[in-house]
TrEMBL record:
GO CC annotation terms, alphabetical: cytosol; DNA helicase complex
Protein name: ATP-dependent DNA helicase
High-level lineage: Bacteria, Bacillati, Cyanobacteriota, Cyanophyceae, Nostocales
Any one Gene Ontology molecular-function term assigned to this protein's record: hydrolase activity
Species whose genome carries this gene: Halotia branconii CENA392
Listed PANTHER family: ATP-DEPENDENT DNA HELICASE SRS2, UVRD / RECB / PCRA DNA HELICASE FAMILY MEMBER
Length: 774
């Protein structure tokens, strides 16, 4: 008979030490692929199985929704295996399908559904659905439980409106994007508009703080929150209200955080408040039956542009170990074996990251064989690079029966790089997903339908009402809408209060009176029914009543048919949501929709090539990885070339990319690239030069075939000017340097020169009047 802790045999001794840790703080630091996430997952299982912790008392924070789902699936599997032995005396995989299904559903009901496991945003939006009514902001404003979550495009709409109409600012100087970024930064640092204004030394900053203040007014008027609020407001609420904090502190006795190196200050504040109940430190006694367990790798900290701060990880032991004897030795575990990547890949990653100065040295030992060499491909341009990658994918897929499309990932620095790969994948009929690209929930038709649901759920949500009031067209024109909006602004009421009052509508809406009244009556009707009907019925009902789908069908174009299918897919999502969740009200569905991304659609074992930015690839692994666009100015990015700290961040990003690969890694760069419109010569990334040469193979054969076809389309190759790699040259400003690359042909030639103090620069020799020196 198997015991309940048998699953611990899947762990090495250090992982086991981490998993079996029960009370107090514990930090697990280790390099990529060393089983940190596995340790965290198993620890949850161990808390429940061995220490009999109620799943409701566990809070597990992951970096993506996909990671949360995977974690829950793993735990479900572990538990089902345990139950199989206990109830049937058999291994799970030997049971009948029916028995397996029964066990899984039993585990789901008793454990998984009660576990609080998700991203910071999803977990804390759930907490706000309980408690936001107890929160009061600095101006005394309140929100109710049905709050809407504004996504990026809602936020941009609101900001544009404030800049252009409310404050009459020049939208070139105060473009919505940069203003939004500044406001988001302020929020991530925990500043209210007033606090932010006090920090501003100049005119621009003060104007932005004014926009911030108006923006907060709008959010409050709409009973809405943005993504940053989902973190900031719980922090404030916890600081404001001891009882609320006390409740959640008592509830979550065990808190676990994955990817802790990418936590920002406000997220950290939240965790700290929950762990300590707002007290300075905890004595040994107070840690009884309580723990905080975080795992991370400072070398994989890649979100500093979102204010992530890996010193939070480095300070963990001081932060939470205060008041404990020998906190230093007791509260940290290091993992040193890498289980993911073949030795060559791992060695390349290790050598690369050693070039960073800001790091703590750590050991990462291979457990797998050397594997293949890393292939480095030099392409003529971005099209030929894509050609190379897709060819390799096809060849590997054809040659190996056990390989499927899901084994491949193409990773790039910026989203804009995906297009040539996508085009070739489509042309070759290879299934693929773009992770984190155009999100399903960003599509127009989905946003329209969601806006209907949001307006029903939260009638104060003017942004949503305005989106659907005349979609599909029902004869409510701009003049009527303006009149209604103006009236609401002048009276200081919500738009809905005007719309739902027939007398006001009759006075204001002119010829559109009937249409407006019908629209308002339709929304009210569904508002009344929402409490008693499942989401799917509300959705179907509003789609019929509003004529939205009918209108699309009448259009009869391919595009409209696509849109109808997407709306159908949303219905499927609602259905799935109802089947999977306990809390199935419309507001919960809207929260989950607002927080999902395409990353969620990538299911385990799915057979499609994955395309994503390096940032989205964190925590994932693939047998074959193509890391493309390794060029100076692209990766590392242009701005980081003159800023050592951000160069180190780019290097960490490269480390993340390399360590996603399990068996094969391909690196590529192009000599010339068209990006954002213009075609520019490019130079191989310095990161390539930082990798051990003996591990790299250049694919001569395929390189030659590809260059042949590419140059054939361009016509005869012209001879280069007499500049050659290795030439020593004198530049009138930068002094003497050595040519490392020659780009372009004929009179379009440019050269890369390495200057001893300045690094490499690309220069047009004619403009710079370069002179050769001996
Ligand atoms: N003790 C072990 N024995 C065998 N395989 C293991 C062990 N621990 C982890 N693995 C496997 O190694 C791979 C990497 O594990 P995991 O994703 O947990 O690493 P990680 O440290 O979280 O990586 P990252 O830093 O990229 O997030 C996974 O496929 C996992 O199943
Ligand atoms: Mg991990």
């Amino acid at each position: 008979m198997t015991t309940t802790t048998d699953f611990l045999s899947h762990l090495n001794p250090s992982q086991r030490q981490a998993v079996e840790h029960y009370c107090g703080p514990l930090l697990v630091v280790a390099g990529a692929g060393s089983g940190k996430t596995r340790a965290l997952t198993y620890r949850i299982a161990n808390l429940i199985l061995k220490h009999r912790v109620d799943p409701e008392n566990i809070l597990a924070v992951t970096f993506t929704n996909k990671a949360a789902r995977e974690m829950k699936e793993r735990i479900q599997k572990l538990f089902a295996e345990q139950l199989a032995m206990k109830e049937h005396g058999q291994r799970f995989d030997l049971l009948t399908e029916y028995q397996q299904m029964q066990l899984r559903s039993q585990v789901y009901k008793t454990t998984i559904k009660n576990l609080w496991c998700g991203t910071f945003h999803s977990l804390f939006s759930r907490i706000l659905r309980f408690d936001i009514e107890k929160y009061v902001d600095e101006k005394g404003r309140k929100w109710n439980r049905n709050f809407s979550i504004f996504d990026e495009s809602d936020v941009q709409t609101v900001i544009k409106d404030i800049v252009n109409k409310q404050l009459n600012l020049d939208d070139k100087k105060f473009d919505a994007r940069s203003v939004r970024y500044a406001i988001s930064n302020a929020k991530n640092q925990g500043f209210s508009p007033q606090e932010f204004e006090r920090e501003q030394p100049n005119y621009r900053g003060r104007v932005i703080s004014q926009v911030y203040s108006c923006y907060q007014d709008r959010l409050a008027e709409n009973n809405a929150l943005d993504f940053d609020d989902l973190i900031l407001i719980p922090t404030r609420l916890f600081q404001q209200n001891e009882q609320v904090l006390g409740y959640w502190h008592r509830k979550f006795c065990h808190i676990l955080v994955d990817e802790y190196q990418d936590t920002n200050r406000t997220q950290y504040d939240l965790i700290r408040l929950l762990v300590t109940n707002g007290e300075e430190s905890k004595s040994e006694w107070e840690w009884r039956n309580r723990s905080v367990f975080v795992v991370g790798d400072a070398d994989q900290s890649i979100y500093s542009f979102r204010m992530a701060d890996f010193t939070i990880l480095l300070e963990f032991q001081n932060d939470f170990g205060d008041g404990l004897p020998d906190a230093d030795t007791r509260s940290m575990v290091k993992l040193e074996e890498n289980y993911r990547s073949c030795e060559n890949i791992l060695q390349a990653a290790n050598e690369l990251i050693e070039n960073n100065t800001q790091r703590i040295d750590k050991i990462l030992k291979p457990t797998r064989g050397a594997g293949e060499q890393i292939y480095c491909h030099k392409a003529d341009n971005e099209l030929e690079e894509a050609d190379f990658v897709i060819n390799q994918i096809q060849t590997l897929e054809n040659q190996n029966p056990e390989v499927n499309w899901g084994n491949f990932a193409i990773l790039y620095r910026t989203n804009a790089q995906s297009r040539p790969f996508e085009e070739l994948l489509v042309r070759n009929r290879i299934p693929y997903t773009v992770v984190g690209g155009m999100k399903f929930y960003d599509r127009k038709e989905i946003k329209d339908v969601i806006a209907y649901l949001r307006a029903i759920n939260n009638p104060s949500d003017t942004v949503s009402l305005l989106r659907v009031i005349n979609t599909p067209r029902r004869g409510i024109g701009k003049t009527t809408i303006d009149a209604l909006v103006n009236a609401s602004q002048q009276l200081g009421t919500t738009l809905w209060e005007i719309l739902s009052d027939e007398t006001s509508v009759n006075t204001l809406a002119g010829r559109a009176t009937k249409a407006v009244n019908n629209f308002a009556a339709m929304i009210s009707r569904w508002q009344e029914q929402v409490a008693t009907l499942p989401v799917t019925e509300v959705l179907q009902g509003i789609l019929e009543d509003s004529g939205y789908v009918q209108d699309l069908m009448n259009q009869g174009t391919d595009e409209a048919t696509d849109r109808v299918q997407n709306v159908q897919e949303l219905y499927n999502a609602a259905l799935q949501f109802q089947e999977e969740n306990e809390e199935i009200s419309l507001r919960d569905f809207l929260s989950s929709a607002a927080l999902s991304s395409d990353l969620d659609n990538l299911k385990e074992g799915q057979t499609a090539v994955s395309l994503m930015t390096l940032h989205s690839s964190k925590g994932l692994e693939f047998p074959v990885v193509f890391l493309v666009g390794l060029e100076q100015g692209l990766f590392p990015g242009y701005r980081s070339l003159s800023d050592p700290a951000s160069l180190e961040e780019e290097r960490r990003l490269c480390y993340v990319g390399i360590t996603r690969a399990q068996e094969r890694l391909y690196l590529s760069f192009a000599r010339e690239r068209r990006l954002y419109g213009s075609r520019e010569p490019a130079m191989r990334s310095q990161f390539l030069d930082e990798l051990p040469e003996e591990l790299l193979a250049t694919q001569r054969k395929s390189y030659q075939t590809y260059t042949k076809s590419a140059s054939a389309t361009r016509g005869q190759q012209q001879t280069k000017q007499n500049w050659q790699v290795g030439d020593r040259v004198l530049h009138k400003t930068f002094g003497i340097g050595e040519i490392t690359h020659v780009f372009g042909e004929g009179n379009k030639v440019s050269v890369a020169i390495k200057f001893s103090n300045l690094g490499q620069k690309i220069i047009d020799p004619r403009v710079a009047q370069l002179q050769k020196v001996d």
